[in-house]
């Protein structure tokens, strides 16, 4: 296998090659660090690269492998720069935090380390994870490897760009309103937002009243599922939790073709109250609906009631997350400062929580009739880097709400959702994709269906020219 094919090989395959001693953790880590050094100055997908630490870890893993290797021994990965890795800078995309180093590991980082991964560094994020594009004052903007004029999305934009560019096979991200699924759409990847309670927020806790979730980005469904297995699990004191899946998510992904039962699938190209997707994103949904019907599933138009009243309370909870972050407003970018100043009383916050809980009951009731909902990931394709930079905050927020409209539904209810590429592209060479939302705590059905779609219409063979020259 040549170095380019190795860089784009699935993480599960890389782990197998390490176990069989066909490659070493040190060789693989050095390959990725070389690619990052060569290409990331143009891409901006990392805020911090810990090359010395990664090489030391990879060298130790090469020289002293235990008899029973953890599942991803020696496989490189990135961690989003909203999450804590002990001894590593964590900026939250904010200029006031450039010298801040974490003194602890987030719980899911501890699990990632325990699985044997080598951490390459911290991937770029929008400031405090608040925006669906990754442009902050403290760093150059993150760009899309499929077309450098365009955004890789946000807030897990750096994670998605780095995987799409072959800087690692797999990445961790977080999603409080589409922040995994949107970048997966923008960069042609699989992105899983798991169910509420699947991945712990230890030791700090959840700051968004259950809207946020830690999840995965990868080239393949099996890789994304396998990393979710690693990250999942209750940690003492979690406010909500789910039992461990049986079988594991990666087992589901690898055996999906073996007798999957027909599902009841609803689809929609419009999201109330925002409106219809543009023609390219709508066509991706319609083509996927046709494919699913050909695979034996029962597919029909449908969309849950209740979402029309979701926008305002969701925005209020998002604002309060910014207000509670502990950073002074004068250190924030203009939009976040404006959101901070919008404020809202404790009573307003509680009413918003109650409203979203009532709406969630209406939405989840829809899934008494359907196993899965198929919708766009975003309502229109990728925007250019800086396209909204000169708009006033209210205009930016209105555009953000419309673009990401299909995503907050699953954050509100806590349901799992997965974004998938379709293997099709815009005239600008940018990937298109779709999103499927599952029943509460039922990632397994989503992963099985995603693997079935992947087998019918493979996409991982596509690579951006920027990353292959």
Automatic annotation (TrEMBL):
GO molecular function: catalytic activity
Residue ranges of every copy of the Amidase domain listed in the record: 27-446
Pfam families: Amidase
InterPro entries named among the record's database cross-references: Amidase (IPR000120), Amidase_CS (IPR020556), Amidase_dom (IPR023631), AS_sf (IPR036928)
Secretion signal, residue range per the UniProt entry: none
PANTHER family registered for this protein in UniProt: GLUTAMYL-TRNA(GLN) AMIDOTRANSFERASE SUBUNIT A, MITOCHONDRIAL, TRANSAMIDASE
Family: Belongs to the amidase family.
The protein, known as: Amidase
Species, as recorded: Drouetiella hepatica Uher 2000/2452
């Amino acid at each position: 296998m040549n170095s380019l094919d190795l860089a784009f090989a699935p993480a599960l395959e890389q782990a197998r090659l390490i176990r069989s001693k066909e490659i070493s953790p040190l060789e693989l880590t050095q390959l990725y660090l070389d690619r990052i050094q060569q290409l990331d100055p143009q891409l901006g997908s990392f805020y911090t690269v810990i090359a010395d630490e990664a090489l030391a870890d990879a060298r130790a893993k090469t020289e002293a492998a235990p008899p029973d290797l953890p599942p991803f021994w020696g496989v490189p990965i990135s961690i989003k720069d909203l999450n804590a890795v002990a001894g590593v800078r964590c900026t939250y995309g904010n200029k006031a935090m450039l010298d801040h180093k974490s003194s602890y590991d987030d719980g899911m980082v501890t699990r990632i380390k325990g699985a044997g991964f080598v951490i390459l560094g911290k991937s770029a994020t929008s400031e405090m994870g608040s925006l669906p594009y990754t442009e902050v004052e403290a760093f150059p903007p993150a760009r899309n490897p499929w077309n450098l004029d365009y955004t890789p999305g946000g807030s897990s934009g750096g994670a998605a760009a780095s995987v799409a560019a072959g800087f690692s096979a797999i990445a961790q991200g977080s999603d409080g309103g589409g922040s995994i699924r949107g970048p997966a759409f923008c960069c042609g990847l699989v992105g899983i937002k798991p169910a509420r309670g699947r991945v712990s927020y230890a030791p700090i806790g959840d700051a968004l009243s259950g809207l946020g979730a830690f999840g995965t980005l990868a080239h393949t469904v099996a890789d994304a599922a396998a990393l979710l297995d690693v990250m999942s699990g209750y940690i003492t004191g979690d406010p909500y939790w789910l039992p461990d899946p049986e079988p594991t998510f990666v087992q589901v992904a690898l055996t999906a073709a073996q007798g999957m039962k027909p599902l009841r699938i609803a689809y929609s190209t419009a999201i109330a109250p925002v409106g219809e997707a543009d023609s390219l994103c709508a066509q991706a949904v319609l083509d996927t609906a046709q494919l699913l019907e050909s695979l034996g599933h029962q597919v029909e138009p449908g969309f849950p009631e209740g979402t029309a009243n979701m926008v305002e309370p969701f925005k209020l909870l998002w604002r309060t997350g910014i207000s509670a972050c502990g950073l002074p407003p004068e250190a924030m970018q203009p939009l976040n400062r404006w959101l901070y100043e919008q404020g809202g009383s404790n009573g307003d916050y509680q009413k918003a929580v109650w409203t979203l809980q009532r709406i969630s009951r209406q939405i989840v009731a829809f899934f008494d009739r359907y196993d899965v909902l198929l919708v766009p990931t975003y309502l229109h394709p990728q925007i250019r880097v800086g396209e909204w930079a000169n708009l006033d905050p209210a205009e930016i927020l209105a555009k953000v709400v419309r673009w990401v409209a299909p995503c907050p539904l699953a954050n509100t209810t806590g349901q799992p959702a997965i974004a998938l590429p379709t293997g099709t592209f815009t005239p600008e060479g940018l990937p298109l994709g779709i999103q499927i939302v599952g029943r509460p705590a039922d990632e397994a059905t989503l992963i099985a269906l995603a693997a079935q779609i992947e087998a019918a219409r493979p996409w991982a063979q596509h690579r951006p020219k920027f990353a292959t020259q």
